Amino acid sequence: MLYKLTNEQLMIQSMVREFSRKVIAVTAAERDQTKEFPAENIKKMGELGLMGMMIPPEYGGQGADTVSYVLALSEIAYSCASTAVVMSVQNSIVCESINRFGNEYQKEKFLKPLAEGAVIGAFALTEPEAGSDPVRQSSTAVKDGDFYILNGEKRFITSGKNAEIVIVTAKTDESKMHKGISAFLVTKGTPGFAVGNVEDKMGLRASDTTDLIFENCRIPAKNLLGEEGDGFKIAMTGLDGGRIGIAAQSIGVAQAAFDAAVKYAKKRKQFGQSISKFQGLRWMIADMATEIEAARQLMFLAASMKDRKEKYSTQASMAKLYASEMVNRLTAKALQIHGGYGFIKDYPVERYYRDARVFTIYEGTSEIQRVVISNSILKDKRLP
Ligand code: CAA
Predict the structure, then answer these.
(1) Would the CB of 233 count as within 6 Å of ligand 1?
(2) Could you give the CA distance from residue 196 to residue 192 in angstroms, rounded to a whole number?
(3) Residue 381 burial by CB count (10 A; 0-12/13-18/19+): exposed, middle or buried?
(4) Closest CA to ligand 1's atom 40
(5) How far is the CA of 105 from the centre of ligand 1 (A)?
(6) Tell me, what's the pLDDT at 382?
(7) What is the pLDDT of residues 364-384, one digit of tens each?
(8) Which residue has its alpha carbon closest to ligand 1 atom 13?
(9) Which of 58, 350, 363, 367 is labelled catalytic?
(10) Degrees (nearest 5) of the Cα angle 168, 242, 205?
(11) With a 6 A CB cut-off, is 100 part of the ligand 1 pocket?
(12) Looking at residue 53, what DSSP letter applies?
């Protein structure tokens, strides 16, 4: 299905493109070196309504559709993938989870400031021994009167250091497997909650990825998100939306690498002519353009199905799988087109190459996406 964008979606895309290229792009290379969190830019993005785009206005959001959101996210990723991952986690797996499963108190207290971009949020599911298989996580939450006592360690948490509000999953009933996992809204400063190791990463260096440690951390029972036992469902539902966001991030970085490669190929002369005249490079450029377009259509398909409230888990996984694998192939080719200049930091393509590497890993590895896709096919009773 070819997706036709509405005037409003085109307007959002063009507004965010201008902002991203004027404001976000300027410091992206420097932040990649210094690892400085883009706090000021995130604040500006909050003011523009980019941190809770799909949340209704009464809870501080813009009430935008998912297609508008992925267009905006791709534009931010075009300039800075580190900034884009903060936007992605906040909009989908954090804000949308609270909007979908939270009660009125939780939406007023936690969702509003998040959607307005006044504070940053994180989602803590992964543990040192539970990544692809979050059902076997070992964090626990034990009810104690009006509180839950939370113990455990979370790993690879995007925005872990900078987040004021974290959705944390933990077991409330060991015997019930995925139905015994619950989700809690935990605020920074709660006694017993500490930020642990901050990772030194290959890419996305300006976004913080941390351990979070919970030691006898007392969480008010009113901060339980959804019902006891809803935690796994909350995570899986949130990840469905999150995976469309990772496709959007991949497409943004791929487009940036592609534009840089085309620009370089036109300018660079060897053997007495522009290297863009050589068929070997022309075919690479044609394949790259085709692959970006294919990924974009998969992303639009998943996003528009979500907007139409259809089941879209499989299409979200397809978009994430294809786009994240595509951007890894594409940034490698873009770097190759740059030759030796692709390998040095004077050109942004080496950053795109490093930033893209994690896209096939986080929010579900490519292997997990294939599990989701093949399960949906093999379990479909309508198929032979
Ligand atoms: N939506 C709603 N419910 C879902 C669901 C979905 N997309 N997928 C599964 N479920 C439900 C099932 O219906 C089932 O519930 P019932 O028993 O009530 O029917 C239950 O969940 C268990 O389903 P499965 O048997 O399919 O579960 P599983 O244990 O085999 O795991 C999995 C499925 C797809 C492998 C899943 O574990 C998974 O997605 N793993 C990857 C985790 C992941 O993506 N981690 C990324 C970390 S977050 C991150 O990276 C964020 C960041 O900071 C950037």
Answers:
(1) yes
(2) 12
(3) exposed
(4) 132
(5) 27
(6) 79
(7) 999 999 999 999 999 887 777
(8) 233
(9) 363
(10) 80
(11) no
(12) T
